[in-house]
């Protein structure tokens, strides 16, 4: 079973990746947490638990399950309070362990619960979406949303183990799978040309949910994430490259009030904008740019949305990734390499965003013509 | 100005102690935080701000003030959410600084806000109660209450500076002052015989609020706390000694639903119970025990309360300080020395608690007789 090591100044743990891992979940958790385990609390969503609850608890004699309704709208403070009270009422103590079984929403919120309950208890991440497996379950970022903005509250709190079972992806809705694959493309562009080629050559298999192909994609994407986090846990430098596509991606999500696109889909469009900016600057060749944009669309379709370029640029300025004045931008310079730059002008951003929006509207028109 | 250094694996900062510090607060904060400061947000309580707001903001050109109503009942999750939303709406970013101006309630909650807003921003503690100056503002413990129990939620998040101005204690209600002095007695008993003697010899001055005497008490108590935290930030060992008197103290607070006694008063009774237990064991001489109990009463009166010994012992078992099975107890062995023991039996605890309760009822009777 391939396992990937995270080693940061504040934590050290393994990500185990494979198939049929749920069968032996109890043993895997015990191995990671040792004997100092009083009780295990699962946090998950009702529909997901219906699909997988039996398999998950096969290796357990008993289990306490706390439910968080599915969806981004439940990743908020009120849910945190409710679950904390449930933990306390059910006798969770400092030696209890939370197991997040779900996508990024369950993972982020459960990680945050673990970070603050009794000033920190242990959490095991069992990610069930592609996005959670390749990205959110690893690296210690936890958080919830405020009415005033997404992920405005949170902690750095690493899991003691991540157990990613490829099998659970079988029930993942196809659009969720495709959205997660945009993050895999991101990993390829910023740091792993082999992953990028693999995604090009094996698109059919990957999109059909072929287990072996998916495992390769998750494995390589995870290694990119782990490698980056190991070098810069707290996002003071290198870790920022994981935000490739996120400047405009986040703005798109905000402009569409998080209802039109999945996160990965917004990042897909955001990456296209970043690629156009890189092309305009001459930082990336036309040929490489075309390969990236083609791959993003190959893993689409990315849904169209309505937003003005000016508005997106405006919203991108409020992105919390931008400290004080200097706006950092992750500029792709080839397939597998990016640079962090601070001299991107508003005009450049506007031009790139407009180019991306034009592409979108051209595609929408083509589709309509085809339909007729 | 005496300044005490905190140096732990995760943080390093100074506690500045003195008089007339508020006048130059702005400069002091800037010195501690450097140029990377976009905006300052004060968190305080309305009545306290009425007394001191002008003095606090004298050195500021402008200030945003967020209010938390006074009292333990507001140290809870709903307040956290409300204040987080206010921070976001007022444009707080990663470079913003929170300044907690208040007692332990404001300090604990503001520290928690700072711990989780945007995964951690900086906080300056400006403690205004004796308890906050000698204890809660230093050491990085932050937290709020759940309906299910006190301080069940929180983080370790150190301030970047603590600025303790003795002047502000002038408006502190006398019972709050006395309650805080119980924590100073605690510091003396666990680690500083000179502080203990000082409290014995200067009781009149200290209780009258004499600035110089109070400054000595705060200074020495703080050094005890800093020294302990510097050696064991995360309470894996030594730091537990700060919980002397807290096993039964917390139980008293819970039994009386936090409405009859101030925290320090409950700790006063809790210390008496611990002293009786030490005496019964022969761990502490009768003479030393008498000195401690006399001093506790000298800084009283500790209000009487109603609770059965059995109930207190039962409640003490639920104290979150007790990991898994082994119950740790801080056993005084002399004036200035304690031991962490794990072999205290329920019977011993019951006997000691009963002795404490008998003492209380004897005192109440005496008082009644005097009144007649
Ligand atoms: N912490 C980080 O570093 C990080 C990184 C990226 C994204 N995120 C966060 O992740 C969240 C998005 O996560 P997500 O994309 O996983 O969405 P999600 O958690 O909302 O899951 C998507 C949907 O799929 C369902 N689902 C999950 N697994 C399933 C399965 N195996 N079979 C069937 N249905 C399944 C879920 O119940 C949900 O309805 C966002 O809140 C984002 O902010 C965090
Ligand atoms: N973090 C820690 O390490 C730690 C340690 C001990 C206690 N605590 C916490 O501290 C809290 C108790 O703190 P506290 O005793 O300071 O009580 P508090 O914060 O409730 O203050 C007591 C009262 O005095 C008022 N007040 C404060 N300063 C004043 C002043 N200078 N003049 C006039 N009025 C003033 C307050 O508004 C309040 O009404 C508890 O919640 C406890 O859990 C935390």
Automatic annotation (TrEMBL), chains A, B:
Q: What is this protein called?
A: 3-dehydroquinate synthase
Protein's organism: Terriglobus saanensis (strain ATCC BAA-1853 / DSM 23119 / SP1PR4)
Question: Where is the protein localized?
Answer: Cytoplasm
Query: Which Pfam families is this protein grouped with?
Result: DHQ_synthase (PF01761), DHQS_C (PF24621)
CDD domains membership? DHQS
Can you tell which superkingdom this protein's organism belongs to?
Bacteria
Alphabetical list of NCBIfam families matching this protein? aroB (TIGR01357)
Gene Ontology CC annotation, any one: cytoplasm
Q: Cofactor(s) for this protein?
A: Zn(2+); NAD(+); Co(2+)
Which positions are annotated as binding NAD(+)?
104-108, 128-129, 141, 150
Q: What class of enzyme is it?
A: lyase
Which EC number applies?
4.2.3.4
Q: In which pathway does it act?
A: Metabolic intermediate biosynthesis; chorismate biosynthesis; chorismate from D-erythrose 4-phosphate and phosphoenolpyruvate: step 2/7
Report the sequence similarity comment from the record. Answer: Belongs to the sugar phosphate cyclases superfamily. Dehydroquinate synthase family.
Q: Which GO terms describe its biological process?
A: amino acid biosynthetic process; aromatic amino acid family biosynthetic process; chorismate biosynthetic process
Catalyses which reaction(s): 7-phospho-2-dehydro-3-deoxy-D-arabino-heptonate = 3-dehydroquinate + phosphate
Q: Where is the 3-dehydroquinate synthase C-terminal domain?
A: 180-322
Which of this chain's residues are annotated to bind Zn(2+)?
183, 246, 263
Where is each 3-dehydroquinate synthase N-terminal domain found?
67-178
What keywords were assigned to this record?
A: Amino-acid biosynthesis, Aromatic amino acid biosynthesis, Cobalt, Cytoplasm, Lyase, Metal-binding, NAD, Nucleotide-binding, Zinc
């Amino acid at each position: 079973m391939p396992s990937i090591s995270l080693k940061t100044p504040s934590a050290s743990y393994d990500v185990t990746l494979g198939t049929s891992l749920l069968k032996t979940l109890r043993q895997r958790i015990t191995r990671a947490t040792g004997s100092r385990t009083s009780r295990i609390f699962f946090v998950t969503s009702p529909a997901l638990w219906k699909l997988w609850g039996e398999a998950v608890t096969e290796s357990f004699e008993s289990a306490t399950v706390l439910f968080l309704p599915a969806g981004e709208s439940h990743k908020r403070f009120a849910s945190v309070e409710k679950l904390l009270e449930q933990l306390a009422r059910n006798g969770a103590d400092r030696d209890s362990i939370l197991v997040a079984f779900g996508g990024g929403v369950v993972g982020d919120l459960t990680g945050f619960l673990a970070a603050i309950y009794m000033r920190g208890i242990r959490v095991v991440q069992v990610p069930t979406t592609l996005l959670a497996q390749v990205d959110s379950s690893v690296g210690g970022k936890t958080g919830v949303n405020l009415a005033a903005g997404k992920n405005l509250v949170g902690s750095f709190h690493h899991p003691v183990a991540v157990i990613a079972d490829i099998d659970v992806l079988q029930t993942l809705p196809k659009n969720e799978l495709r959205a997660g694959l945009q993050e895999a493309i991101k990993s390829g562009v910023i740091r792993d040309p082999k992953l990028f080629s693999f995604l090009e050559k094996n698109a059919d298999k990957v999109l059909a949910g072929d287990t072996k192909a998916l495992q390769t994609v998750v494995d390589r994407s995870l290694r990119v994430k782990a490698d980056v986090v190991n070098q810069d846990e707290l996002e003071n430098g290198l870790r920022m490259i994981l935000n490739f596509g996120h400047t405009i991606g986040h703005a798109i999500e905000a402009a569409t009030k998080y209802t039109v696109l999945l996160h990965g889909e917004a990042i897909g469009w955001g990456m296209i904008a970043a690629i156009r900016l890189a092309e305009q600057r001459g930082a990336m060749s036309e040929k490489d740019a075309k390969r990236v944009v083609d791959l993003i669309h190959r893993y689409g379709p990315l849904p169209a949305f309505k937003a003005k370029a000016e508005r997106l640029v405006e919203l991108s300025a409020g992105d919390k990734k931008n400290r004080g004045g200097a706006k950092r931008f992750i500029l792709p310079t080839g397939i597998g390499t990016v640079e962090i730059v601070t001299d991107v002008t508003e005009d450049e951003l506007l031009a790139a965003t407009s180019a991306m929006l034009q592409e979108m509207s051209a595609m929408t028109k083509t589709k309509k013509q085809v339909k007729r």
